[in-house]
Design brief:
The complex is a heterodimer of chains A (195) and B (220). Chain A is mostly helical and 195 residues long. Chain A has helices at 3-16, 27-32, 37-66, 75-97, 99-105, 109-112, 116-127, 132-160, 172-187. Chain A is globular. Chain B is an all-alpha fold and 220 residues long. Chain B has helices at residues 2-5, 16-30, 41-47, 51-74, 84-106, 108-114, 116-119, 125-135, 140-170, 189-219, and strands spanning 172-173, 176-177. Classes of the chains: A mainly alpha (195), B mainly alpha (220).
Chain lengths: 195, 220
């Protein structure tokens, strides 16, 4: 894969087809863990890490197990199991060997199993028949796109904390409208695809 | 959610229909998964660009929800506590695969337009949420009713979203042009957030109004 191709993939995954704001994947953590910028950043980093890893593992499982056995229709079941096992394993590994990272990511890791962005990336990789390297790159870039969106969103929400809203819009609706405005800004990137 | 979590004794046949009615109304209206509990947001926002998509997604999710609720309820005494989430996920994933293959075979156009999001029903928080909060504590009949009503509540909200976005965004109802194409933005991703935000705000407004009225009535 050429450097140009990599760059164009990054541009598409992070901006033009942002996982959260354009493709609507990973909305639950996006709305749930975005009250503070630093927790948002922690969640984002955990997602980048797990998405890169899960893209790699699911690609290998698909190529060397599901396709030779003609079991592609089991993709959903196998992928979600792989991701759940992977998250558990990463948690144990970090706890044992990189305790600093574990304390930083700790509470976000279990939440990632049910983050549809992770399963979504694995399924998109397979559907588009990406190569091994491209799959990993796509996973990592998409995770970065998620991080960008959630950090932007959290910093807006922090500033809105004491703003006055109509009573009916307090709480959840206010967050949704804010997200809508950010998504509108990202629509400006939609023409941006090269290569 | 506390109300629906109460374990019931199957011997109370007298209140059985009352309980079923209560579960049903809870899922459909009072505990609407989207508008009140805020579960399953990804699917809600992504597929509701038209009414047909909303109905298709809603009914697919309902089918998976009923089946997984019943199976998990039947297995609730066998599944060990420590690995229950993993077991639930396997049950749910199996039913999602069945629904996915059925749609591909019999309604291919729907399967195409919903795409990835059919497979992503696996990670829809509503399903795992009901498995954990309801099916693992209640008998199969109640679990089925709960699955049906939660699914229909989900479908209802999806239909409202799809209807509004299709009408205001493209000026169409079920693909038939009735208005000149309007604010295309509402059919775009940003519109999804805005329409859902407004719907939830409307729900909260009605709830506040109803609470006020009740309070006023009590005083008078």
């Amino acid at each position: 894969m050429s450097l140009f191709e990599l760059f164009s993939l990054a541009l598409t995954a992070i901006l033009a087809e942002n996982f959260v704001l354009v493709k609507f994947l990973g909305i639950c953590p996006f709305l749930g863990v975005s009250k503070k910028t630093d927790t948002a950043l922690g969640m984002g980093m955990a997602v980048v890490f797990v998405m890169g890893l899960s893209s790699m593992v699911t690609w290998l499982v698909n190529e060397f197990f599901l396709i030779p056995q003609n079991l592609q229709y089991m993709q959903t079941v196998v992928f979600i199991l792989v991701i759940a096992a992977l998250v558990q394993f990463v948690e144990l590994f970090l706890k044992r060997f990189v305790p600093a990272l574990y304390t930083a990511l700790g509470i976000y890791l279990p939440l990632i199993t049910t983050n549809c962005a992770v399963l979504g990336a694995a399924l998109i990789n397979v559907q588009n028949e990406y190569s091994f390297i491209k799959s990993i790159a796509f996973g990592v870039f998409s995770g970065l796109g998620f991080t960008l969106a959630i950090v932007l969103f959290a910093s807006v929400r922090e500033r809105l904390e004491f703003a006055k809203f109509p009573k009916a819009f307090e709480g959840f609706p206010q967050a949704l409208v804010t997200a809508g405005l950010i998504a509108m800004a990202f629509m400006g990137f939609s023409g941006l695809s090269i290569g | 959610m506390a109300k629906t979590n109460v374990e019931t004794k199957p011997t109370e046949t007298a209140s059985k229909s009352g309980k079923i009615k209560e579960i049903f109304l809870n899922g459909l209206i009072f505990q609407n998964p989207i508008l009140v509990l805020f579960l399953g947001m990804c699917a809600t926002l992504a597929v509701t660009t038209s009414l047909v998509n909303g109905v298709g997604m809603g009914l697919s999710t309902t089918a998976v929800l009923i089946c997984s609720n019943v199976v998990i309820s039947l297995l609730r005494k066998i599944i060990p506590k420590e690995v229950r989430i993993a077991c639930y996920v396997v049950v749910i994933a199996a039913f999602v695969t069945i629904v996915d293959l059925m749609l591909q075979a019999y309604i291919p156009f729907l399967s195409e337009s919903l795409g990835l999001f059919i497979q992503l029903i696996v990670v829809n928080c509503i399903i795992l949420g009901r498995a954990e909060a309801f099916a693992s504590k209640n008998g199969p009949l109640y679990a089925a009713v709960d699955g049906l009503s939660m699914g229909l509540g989900f479908t209802l909200a999806l239909c409202a979203m799809g209807f509004i976005r299709e009408l205001l965004g493209g000026g169409a109802i079920l693909g038939h042009q009735v208005l000149p194409a309007g604010a295309a933005m509402l059919a775009a991703p940003a519109g999804g957030f805005l329409v859902l935000g407004s719907l939830v705000a409307l729900t909260q407004y009605i709830k506040a109004k109803a609470a006020d009225k009740k309070k006023g009535g009590d005083q008078a």
